[in-house]
Amino acid sequence: MDSAAIRNQFPSLQRKYNNLPMIYLDGPGGTQVPSSVIEAISNYYKTSNANSHGAFVSAHETDSVIWSMRENMAAFLGAEGPETISIGQNMTTLNFSLARALSKVFKPGDEVLITQLDHEANRGPWLTLRDAGIKVREVVLKKDGTLDYDDFKNKINENTRLVAMGMSSNALGTVNNFKLARALTYQYNAWLLLDAVHYAPHFAIDVQEIGCDFLLCSAYKFYGPHVGLLYSKPGILDRLPTDRLRTAGQIAPDSIETGTLNHAAIAGVKAAVDFIASLGSGDNLRSQIISAFDLIATHEHGLASYLHKELKGISGITLVGQDFSSKQRTPTQSFTLDGKTPLQVCEHLAKKNICAWDGHFYAIRAIEALGLLEKGGVTRIGISAYNTKEEIALTLEEIKKVAG
What we know:
Blueprint lengths: L2 H5 L8 E2 L2 E2 L1 E2 L10 H13 L9 H21 L7 E4 L2 H13 L7 E5 L8 H4 L7 E5 L9 H7 L4 E7 L11 H10 L3 E5 L11 H4 L3 E5 L9 E5 L30 H16 L6 H28 L4 E4 L11 E6 L4 H9 L3 E2 L1 E3 L4 H6 L8 E5 L6 H15 L1
Parallel strand pairs: 3-13, 5-6, 5-7, 7-8, 8-9
Antiparallel strand pairs: 1-2, 4-10, 9-10, 11-12, 12-15, 14-15
Helix pairs in contact: 2-9, 3-9, 9-10, 10-13
């Protein structure tokens, strides 16, 4: 990829603070946003700021903004069509809504299977089903940062109605074996829900090939604004008793969408998909997206491998998670440093405008299971499409300084 051409599209990357450039390695918590996305949001307010389903032109334009975003996201996810894409405030809110609906469908004695590796947004909503007499079990996390799939096979059974798992871990970068999960859920006639929030910025997704019943992601993790998105396999959402007003749409995709949506941000989501597609090539939007992610994955994996190798050689550093021998791993590296808390490491980096995260990142169960929660969690460095080798080299220099 042409890193310079990409970086020129991001106004925030041009910023300096205390005469030093900003280095954004906080992508797993939310990426920076290109000018095209900012302009799409601004232009909506300038030209089409109206509620939907009106008789006048700006209302028609709002309808078009919403539908065209659904079309773009369907292409982004390889979905059957725009009617499979529902919009929400964020992934967590959508997942809670889905859990409430399913709590009315599942019966006491039914089971839901979650994992210790997941972000709390794909655990907490399902744990509430215990109040309805539904048993919630969790797949154990191994010390190497991967799920115990023998434990998975032992816990899924004829009472399992739903498996909720992440495609990849926002804390450790692990890519889960969601294809195995799909095979096992087919065997037991259970639904599969995937959290793609951390996976979607790095790899192309094909929901039809995977065969998942639900998939959730967040646009602000792939160069867009704060909007949550839910894919539902055709026909499923129509049958669920979601919380909705009498005046709301009674079928997908509207049936899980409550209140007036953030139309300007929706315009930004469409632009974010267009931005990603612009990095690739092909005859249509879907092929451009796939091509773009091939380039993004190669670029990010190269930088993450370099980071991993150099960190490994720094005295006192303990790397958390898998190595980068496989490309099926997100470019997210977590570590601990002897004698320093993760917060202290990040505070040192912040003095040089290097943005990195410390803590558990809402994957609190995973950090707890690894015995790191009481130590302040981990330091996390995440690589995005706009990052460069020079930025990683500067970051490594500062980590060596704080390591002493």
